[in-house]
Structures are given as structure tokens and as C-alpha cells.
Fold:
Amino acid sequence: MSRAFVKETENDTTGLPDRPVSTDRNFVTAAGLADIEAALSRFEAAHRAALESGDRNAAAAASREIRYWGARRASAEVVKTSDDKSKASFGMTVSLRRDDGREQSFRIVGEDEADPSRGTLSHLSPLARALLTHSPGEAVTIAGHEAVILEVR
Structure:
């Protein structure tokens, strides 16, 4: 049988779906923009290396990441952190006390920067939305529970 009629499934990388790109505005901190640019550079280098070595799967995976991070770079809107510390806003760190006594602090950042385990929250997350525009001393409702904002910095 001719090779023209054989499906090469193990090397077929055309089915690799793109990463979904958020339709919300892409607010980022200055550090977040630098992270996006670093990721883009890293995947461009990985793509070149994959092409040089003939690794089609790695090239396709890197190309997918280049498309994602390129789209995120193109839509990035750097938001300067406000000097007004009287209320929570993008780029600020907010400390709060939950109704069970736990105290937590979170920095409100862009979607790609968010990592709750490291203390950063997407500005689109329910918790960040509950905190935005509120001041120290104010109580906010988070998932049916109350929390008091202790500090905004």
C-alpha cells in the first residue's frame, strides 16, 4: 500500500486545539506584562529548538503557546496601581479577616498573573470582585460569609 493512503496519527499535530483566550479585558500589572513577554520569548525559543531538532510535536505545542501568549501580549492593558489606599483596586494587596477568624492577604492582579496559592487573585475572581472599591473597616460578603477588610496597600 502506498504511504499516501496511510494516516499518520502518531505525528499528527494539526488537531492540537488553541488555548482559550479570555474575552474579558486583559488588565495586567507592569510585572504581569513582563511575565507575558518572558513566556512569549521562552516559547519562541522552544519553537526554534523544536524546528531545528525536527520534533514536530514539540514545535506544534510551542506554536500553540506562542499564539496564546502573543494574543495576551497584544491585548494587555497595563494598569497603574492607584496611589489612593483608601479603597481596594487593581494591583493592590488587601488584607481581610474572615468570619471564622482567619486572616488573609491577596494582591489583585490580571488573569494570567493570578495564583491564589501565592497570594494573587484575578481581578475577575468572585473574591476580588467582592473586595474592589471597598475600604478598610468595611465588611464584604464572600461566598455567603462575611469578611472585614483590615488593610489596603
Summary: The longest strand covers residues 145-152. DSSP finds three helices and seven strands in the chain.
